[in-house]
C-alpha cells in the first residue's frame, strides 16, 4: 500500500512542479479571449466553469484505457506502475496540455488542423484520416466494453446493450454540449470517485497482499513471456500517454474561459487519469496470487471479467455493482465524446457548419452505421489496432507541439524527447506485431531506433526558430 501511495504522491508532485514548468514554457496569455468567449455558438463553443471543464475533460479521456490497459499491463509486474508515473508526468500530461492549449490558440481547432498548422498540410491530411479512424475504433471499443459489463449485471444480452449505448451516443453527439454532458457528468464523477477510493479501501482491509510477487522492477512477470519492449508502452496508453486525448482536448478548448486554467484542466486531468490507472494496476498486481492467476481470469472473460470479479469480491454485491457502474461510466463518457470529436473533425474537413441539427445528423448517422459494422469484428483485434493507432496519434501530436516550441525558440525538448520515445515504440510495435509486419523483435527494434534517429535529425534540420513568431510572442 505504501508503494501505491508513494506513486500517487509522485503524480501530484509532478502536477505542481513539472506541470508548472511546462506552463512557463508555453506562456499562457490570461488577457487573451478564449474561443469559448469569442466564438460562443451555444452548441460546441460554450463557456463553462473550470471545475466543470476539468471534470468533463477527465471523464472524456478516462475511458476503458486506464482500467483495461493497466490490468493487462499488470501481467508484466510492478514495472508497469513506473511507466504510469513517469509516462504520465513527462509525456502524457505534457501531450494533453499542448494538445489543449494549441487548440485554444487555434480557435478551438481539432487535432488535424493543429497538427497541420505546425507540421504542414501533408500531416494535416494524414491526421484527418488517422484521427477519425482512431475515434471510430475508440467509440466501438467503448461500446463493446460497457455492453459486456452491463450484460454481466442484467438479464439483457450484450447486443441489446450495444444498441442502447449506440442510441445514447447518437443523442449525445448531436445535442449541445451543455445539455447532457455538462449536466450529468458531475454525477458520473461522484460515481467514479466512489469506485476508485472504495476499491482501494476494500483491497487494504482484505486478506489480499499488496504486490504478492514483490516489488521486483527488473523482472518481466508476464506468464506467456511477451516482451516488455515495446508491448508495455502500447498496452498501457491511457494513464501514461494517449493520443486519444488529443482528440478530446479541443472539445474543452472550446469551453474554457481563460488560458491560465490550462494546467488545471489539461495537465491536471491527465494526472487524475494516472491515479485511476495506478489503482487498477495495483488491483491487478495484488488481488491475484500471481500473474498466472490474473492471466487465467483474463483468458476466461477478458479485462471485463477482472473488473467484475475484483469489484464484487472487495465491495460485496451492492458495492460491487456500484463499482462496476463506475467503470461502465468511464467508457460511455469517453465513447460519446469520441464520436462527437469525429463529427467535428469531419465537419471541419468538409467545411459543414454544425449549428443546424440536420447538418449534425448528416455526418452523425453514416458515422454510426460504420461504427456498428466495426463492432462485428473480434474485440481483441479491434483493441490491438486501437492501441497502436492511439500511441501513433500521441507521437504525431508531440512532434507538432515540439515544432510549435522550436519555431518560437522555446525549450522544445520537453516535447521532442517524448516524441522520439513514442516514435521508437510505435514503429517497433508495427514492425513486430501480427497486425503489422510480423518481423523478429531484434529486427523490429533496429527499424524503430533507426526511424527515430532519422525523424529526429530531419526535425532538427527542417524546423528552426522563426524570428517573426518570436517577435509576436514578445
Tell me, what's the shape?
A: globular
The total of beta strands comes to 0
What structural class is derived from the secondary structure elements? mainly alpha
Strand percentage:
under 5%
Uncertain regions spanning at least 5 consecutive residues = none
Number of helices: 19
Helix fraction, binned, reads over 70%
Largest sheet: number of strands, sense, barrel closure: none
Q: Mind telling me the C-alpha Rg?
A: 21 Å
Compute the average pLDDT: 87
Q: List SSEs in N-to-C order.
A: HHHHHHHHHHHHHHHHHHH
Distance between the termini: 48 Å
Relevant terms:
mainly alpha, 19 helices, globular, 0% strand, transmembrane helix, cell membrane, 474 residues
Write up this protein.
The protein is an all-alpha fold. Helices cover 76% and strands 0% of the residues. α4 (50-61) packs across α10 (181-205), α7 (111-119) packs antiparallel against α8 (121-153) and α7 (111-119) packs across α16.
Amino acid at each position: 500500500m505504501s508503494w501505491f501511495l508513494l506513486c500517487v504522491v509522485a503524480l501530484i508532485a509532478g502536477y505542481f512542479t513539472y506541470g508548472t514548468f511546462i506552463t512557463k514554457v508555453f506562456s499562457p496569455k490570461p488577457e487573451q479571449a478564449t474561443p469559448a468567449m469569442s466564438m460562443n455558438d451555444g452548441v460546441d463553443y460554450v463557456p463553462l466553469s473550470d471545475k466543470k471543464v476539468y471534470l468533463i475533460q477527465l471523464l472524456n479521456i478516462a475511458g476503458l484505457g486506464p482500467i483495461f490497459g493497466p490490468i493487462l499491463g499488470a501481467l508484466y509486474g510492478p514495472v508497469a506502475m513506473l511507466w504510469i508515473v513517469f509516462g504520465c508526468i513527462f509525456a502524457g500530461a505534457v501531450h494533453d496540455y499542448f494538445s489543449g492549449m494549441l487548440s485554444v490558440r487555434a480557435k478551438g481547432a481539432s487535432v488535424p488542423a493543429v497538427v497541420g498548422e505546425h507540421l504542414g498540410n501533408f500531416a494535416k491530411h494524414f491526421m484527418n484520416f488517422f484521427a477519425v479512424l482512431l475515434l471510430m475504433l475508440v467509440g466501438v471499443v467503448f461500446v463493446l466494453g460497457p455492453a459486456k459489463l452491463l450484460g454481466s449485471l442484467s438479464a439483457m444480452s450484450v447486443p441489446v446493450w450495444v444498441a442502447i449505448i449506440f442510441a445514447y451516443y447518437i443523442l449525445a453527439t448531436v445535442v449541445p454540449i451543455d445539455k447532457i454532458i455538462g449536466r450529468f457528468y458531475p454525477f458520473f464523477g461522484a460515481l467514479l470517485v466512489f469506485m476508485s477510493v472504495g476499491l482501494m479501501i476494500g483491497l487494504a482491509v482484505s486478506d489480499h497482499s499488496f504486490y504478492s510477487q514483490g516489488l521486483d522492477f527488473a523482472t518481466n512477470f508476464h506468464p506467456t513471456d511477451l516482451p516488455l519492449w515495446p508491448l508495455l508502452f502500447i498496452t498501457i496508453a491511457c494513464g501514461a500517454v494517449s493520443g486519444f486525448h488529443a482528440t478530446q482536448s479541443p472539445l474543452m478548448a472550446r469551453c474554457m474561459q481563460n488560458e491560465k486554467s490550462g494546467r488545471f484542466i489539461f495537465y491536471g486531468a491527465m494526472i487524475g487519469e494516472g491515479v485511476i490507472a495506478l489503482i487498477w494496476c495495483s488491483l491487478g498486481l495484488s488481488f491475484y496470487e500471481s500473474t498466472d492467476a490474473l492471466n487465467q481470469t483474463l483468458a476466461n472473460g477478458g479485462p471485463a471479467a477482472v473488473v467484475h470479479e475484483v469489484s464484487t469480491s472487495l465491495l460485496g454485491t451492492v458495492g460491487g455493482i456500484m463499482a462496476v457502474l463506475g467503470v461502465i461510466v468511464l467508457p460511455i463518457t469517453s465513447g460519446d465524446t469520441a464520436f462527437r470529436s469525429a463529427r467535428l473533425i469531419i465537419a471541419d474537413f468538409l467545411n459543414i457548419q454544425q449549428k443546424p441539427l440536420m447538418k449534425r445528423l448528416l455526418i452523425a448517422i453514416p458515422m454510426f452505421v460504420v461504427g456498428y459494422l466495426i463492432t462485428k469484428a473480434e474485440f481483441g483485434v479491434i483493441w490491438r489496432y486501437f492501441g497502436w493507432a492511439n500511441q501513433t496519434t500521441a507521437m504525431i501530436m508531440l512532434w507538432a507541439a515540439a515544432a510549435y516550441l522550436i519555431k518560437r525558440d522555446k525549450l522544445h525538448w520537453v516535447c521532442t524527447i517524448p516524441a522520439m520515445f513514442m516514435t521508437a515504440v510505435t514503429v517497433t510495435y508495427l514492425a513486430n506485431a501480427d497486425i503489422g509486419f510480423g518481423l523478429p523483435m531484434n529486427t523490429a527494434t533496429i527499424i524503430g531506433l533507426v526511424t527515430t534517429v532519422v525523424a529526429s535529425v530531419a526535425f532538427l534540420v527542417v524546423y528552426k526558430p522563426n524570428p517573426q513568431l518570436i517577435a509576436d510572442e514578445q
